[in-house]
Amino acid sequence: MQTNELPKMNMTENTTGCCPKFNPEGWDGRHLHLENKPFVRATTRGVLHIPVNMGSVFTRVQERIEDAGAQDPEGYFVLSRDLSASEAEHYFAVTRPVPDEEMVMMSGDFLTRVFEGPYRHAKTWVHDMETAAIADGHTAKRIFMFYTTCPKCARAYGENYVVGVAEI
User: Is the whole model's pTM more than 0.85, yes or no?
Assistant: First the structure.
């Protein structure tokens, strides 16, 4: 895979009017190399790891990304991880700076694994990502989850794909 290249997504298969249906093909077992890849960083609040303002934060950030013309037309990529039981951070991949949002540049190598199941399995998936990194000859630094669809769309599509992304 080329630097800053992500697997392609079919953005047109969208029967919900919200999230497009995620096709996991091409996402499992990938090595991604990012070099100064721009991301918008946002945080959400939660109670015991359950987000309480994710909808409003994601809506605000996505609107600003679209207003700035910074959405990649070939897909979206949001890296999420819990910082504590009451706070999570989210990195939205973009193609250019987004006004009024915190911008960060991300560089590094990442390993991916695709999971399917309820969000409550995230703790197990984090452990699985640590194990996958070791099996690949690395130690996981940070582990993110790419929640490919919102809960409403996951129910509508009958599948809840989540991509684990380990920085190695």
Answer: yes
User: What is the spatial distance between Cα 1 and Cα 24, in angstroms, rounded to a whole number?
Assistant: 16
Q: Cβ atoms within 10 A of the Cβ of 110, count?
A: 22
Distance CA 27, CA 86 (A): 29
Domains of the chain by residue range: 31-167
User: In angstroms, what CA-CA distances link 92 with 14, 20, 153?
Assistant: 20, 16, 19
What is the band of 161 on the pLDDT scale with cuts at 50, 70, 90? Answer: very high
Confidence of residue 95 (pLDDT cuts 50, 70, 90): very high
And the tokens for 108? Answer: 């590094």
DSSP 20: P
Task: Give per-residue pLDDT as tens, 12-35.
Answer: 889 998 999 999 999 999 999 999
Tokens of 165: 């992304």
Residues in the chain: 168
CA atoms within 13 A on the CB side of 128: 17
Partners of 80 in beta bridges: 90, 145
Measured between alpha carbons, how far is residue 86 from residues 50, 146, 154 in Å?
Answer: 8, 19, 24
As a whole number of Å, the CA-based R_g of the chain is 15
Q: Where does 31-167 sit in CATH, by number?
A: 3.20.80.10
